[in-house]
Amino acid sequence: MRIAVWQGHSPAADLEQALSEAETALAAAGVMGATVLVLPEVWLPGYNAEGIPALALQREAPELQRLAVAARRAGCALALGYAERERETVYNAAVVFGADGTQFAHYRKVQLYGARERALYTPGEALVTFPLAGEIAALLICYDIEFAPHIRALADRGATLILCPTANMQPFTHVPDVTVRAMAANHGVAVAYSNFCGAEGDLTYTGRSLIAGPHGEIVAQAGETPCLLIADLPPRDPARISTQGTDLRPLT
User: 41 catalytic, yes or no?
Assistant: First the structure.
């Protein structure tokens, strides 16, 4: 499978910029034959934007439908993070549109990070898997990827690929450089990790967006500037897949 990951500056509440940039990245990913493009956490309206409760979108919002059309036009699936409103409740969510423009996966972040997220959002209560180009894929958002039990649960459901919108900020460079790769290797899943770069308000993002193979290898990684990563996932070698899930000896 060919994976695309977009790393860019936060649109910082400029929804037209966010949509236009996503459309451009989708068009490029489609031309390059990517199966799916992953955009960062809360791409709409921007992770650290002011006024998120007022800017949060319903699942059928015109902005999201515009991206569904762009995915169909590009012939490339799209996974992106957004602030979701359901009545009076706001979630840190991610959605996947297929290459035909249909919405076929939706996820709400389970592990909210820090006081700001906990004040803004209600946590999700369920993990999600879905078929993608003959594989079983899953969604996690940023901090979620640092929790081994969630990844283990997804691997036990047969997931071989995790799409992970993120907003990883300084000083947590160990997450893209070490944690994501370790999680991939320990659970035999590839990870497409899409981050912001640059600064937004009081946050400076680490960049370092990553496509990690199922054995923890770096397939492609960005630096600290805008970048479109496109790479083919390597095959899983059964002899190298971790057996931790079956070998664990619970201690009493």
Answer: yes
Is 142 annotated in the active site? yes
* pLDDT per residue as tens digits for the range 4-31: 999 999 999 999 999 999 999 999 999 9
Prediction pTM value: 0.96
DSSP of 38-99: E--TTTBT-TT-TTHHHH-B-TT-HHHHHHHHHHHHHT-EEEEEEEEEETTEEEEEEEEE-T
* H or E element that contains 121: none
- Among the options 21, 23, 84, 109, which is catalytic? 109
Homologous superfamily of the 2-234 domain (CATH): Carbon-nitrogen hydrolase (3.60.110.10)
Q: Active site includes 135? A: no
Convert 204-242 into a string of H (helix), E (strand) and C (coil). EECCCCEEECCCCCEEEECCCCCEEEEEECCCCCHHHCC
